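Sat 14:20. Reprocessing the chain from the morning session after the first attempt stalled halfway. Input below, unchanged.
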Amino acid sequence: MADIDLEKRFDIHEIAKNKLAEIEKFVCNIYCCHSTGCKSSGSDDILELIKNIVSEHQLEDKVRVVATGCMGLCAQGPLIRVEVGGQKDVLFKRVNLDAVKDIMLKYVIPALKAQGTQKIPADLERYMLSLELPFFTKQEKVVLKNAGHMDPEDIAEYIARGGYLALEKALKTMTPAQVVDEIKRSGLRGRGGGGFSTGMKWELAAKVPTVDEKFIICNGDEGDPGAYMDRSILEGDPHAVIEGMMIAAYAIGATEGWFYVRAEYPLAVERLEKAIKACKKNRLLGNNIMGTDFCFNVDIRLGAGAFVCGEETALIHSIEGARGTPRPRPPYPTNKGLWEKPSCVNNVETLANVSKIMLKGADWFASFGTETSKGTKVFALTGQVEHSGLIEVPMGTTINEIVNEIGGGVPTGKHLKAVQTGGPSGGVIPKEYMNMPVCYEELKKVGSIMGSGGMIVIDDSSDMVSLAKFYLDFTVDESCGKCAPCRIGGRQMLALLDKINRGKGKKKDLELLKKIAFAMQKASLCGLGQTAPNPVLSTLKFYENEYITKLVDGNLKDEEN
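Finished this time. Tokens:
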């Protein structure tokens, strides 16, 4: 990690100037994806080999090797991207150690010697991946702009890309109320699933009468199956989240922040810890930040993998060292949160948007998206789709554009059946709705939710009853058991689904499923229980025939009691 241990006053403009000058000295930049996905496929060894070859050929002054965050196209990893001189970037997919040797010896080194256009050898073409794919060209990168393009462990490189300019602007030219107003005007809504206005939440916390302490909390307890947006943001651009948290703290009057991150995300935690350490070392955390009266510090708490701790009051209990169970609201955390003090809980992606809004303005951010769903959204596009990975698109982009254009559609031999959004709390959206824009209101109309951003593509080989049972089994297992509607209702629904799936169910069981589901929605204490029935209700709504064909009396007339 390249820290900036300055003797003189901390000056982000000078740091940016020096870092850019340093980067410009290199003729070649090699970016190696070093996210969890690519690391699991061997990118540690690949990175080491690249560095060794550069050293062996004494090219340290010409070639810069960068371990980056996620490049997006996870299914094709490990990925490396090469920039040589004025030539176009070349992206190499599914590389192994032999491929790395060939790329370095047959392309990179000859290109450096040639100092001009260098053709890719024919035997390397099988590793090439076109950057003109719709997967890359049809995205709009805001939150993910830096991911895959910089060293996430180098604070100077973040600053060189405009990092901490937004914080400086807020602290030196704006009042806390003006910061809140800017976020309100932008239309930014919580990216953790609830979709509540971020500016309004900040305003509520800011208006609480002055107390000795207020807290800002970053919710990184991402637990939806198939979702890894927050993990990738923390791995690829941790300083963006820290900067967003600091601006939020200034806006509401907080002096302390907490990151609550899943312990199952060791790389995200490691990079976050390094980023916090670099900020403290370089006077971006602590007392009198940037020569102002603003004082702020942050700490990290690791979650033990309880899905319910994604709910803000359960999360707060967990930080306090208590069992992670939700409590009734009101009072809301903005009035009485962590240790009974006013607290504002924001999702990782929400905070990562803040510095961009402060620098480019509310109107710029609001120019993306729909009337009520502003900005962009990061999705983990997974399932039966050709190009699975991490994407970012403007709100209002249709499901068809995401799945069939950016994702490349369902692999050959299968046909699209549905898309599932919102994780265990979401619902399935049939192929007939593929032209529906993805935004909070439209998803709600068809019985699904945005959630934190998981999007799973389902092909025609999938059994919807089994799918609903899978998600309900997950939420039943993750229920904290505090309230009866969720604790009892979830198990009753799961037992009915199991009965139907085994061919033992009857038509009256379908009605009973709906009754229990509606009771859970109305009476459960928190969002887990309230939304747990969504996969069941949405599959019943759109694929009831698949339930009926499994019933004992599925082909008979209504059962006589």
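The first strand starts at residue 28 and ends at 33.
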